[in-house]
Design brief:
With 107 residues, the protein is an alpha/beta fold. The protein is built from two helices and nine strands. It has one domain: Hypothetical Protein Aq_1857, Chain: A, CATH 2.60.300.12. The protein has a four-stranded mixed β-sheet. A three-stranded mixed β-sheet has the order 1-6-7.
Length: 107
C-alpha cells in the first residue's frame, strides 16, 4: 500500500508548509459526493490521528485515513500549473471513471 508525491507536489507542499510556519505534511482522503461517487479531499496536516497511515519521509509526509486508503491505494499525486491555474492532480489506478468536470471519480 502506498501513496506517493511527484517532485513537483512534494516541493509545493514543502514550500507551503514553510510559508505557513507549521505542519507535518499533506492530508489526503475521499468523501462521497459528485456525479461519479467520490471526491478527493486535500489539506495540510498538523498531526497524525489514530486511524491514519503515513507515507513518505521528512520533510514531506502524506497522511491518509484507513478508509480512504482502500479507494486511493497506489495513487500518485502531482502538482501542475496550467496557465494561471494550479492544482494537485491524482493518478489513481483504482479509478474506473471520472465525471466530465474531473471533480469526482468512481471505483
Amino acid at each position: 500500500m502506498a501513496i506517493s508525491l511527484t517532485n513537483s507536489a512534494a516541493e509545493r507542499v514543502r514550500s507551503y508548509l514553510a510559508k505557513r510556519g507549521h505542519g507535518i505534511g499533506l492530508r489526503v482522503g475521499v468523501k462521497r459526493t459528485g456525479c461519479s461517487g467520490w471526491a478527493y479531499l486535500v489539506d495540510y496536516a498538523d498531526e497524525v490521528e489514530d486511524d491514519d497511515i503515513v507515507f513518505g519521509d521528512e520533510p514531506v509526509k502524506v497522511i491518509v485515513d484507513k478508509k480512504s486508503l482502500e479507494l486511493i491505494d497506489g495513487t500518485e499525486i502531482d502538482f501542475v500549473k496550467e496557465g494561471i491555474n494550479e492544482a494537485f492532480k491524482f493518478r489513481n489506478p483504482n479509478t474506473k471513471g471520472e465525471c466530465g468536470c474531473g471533480e469526482s471519480f468512481s471505483v
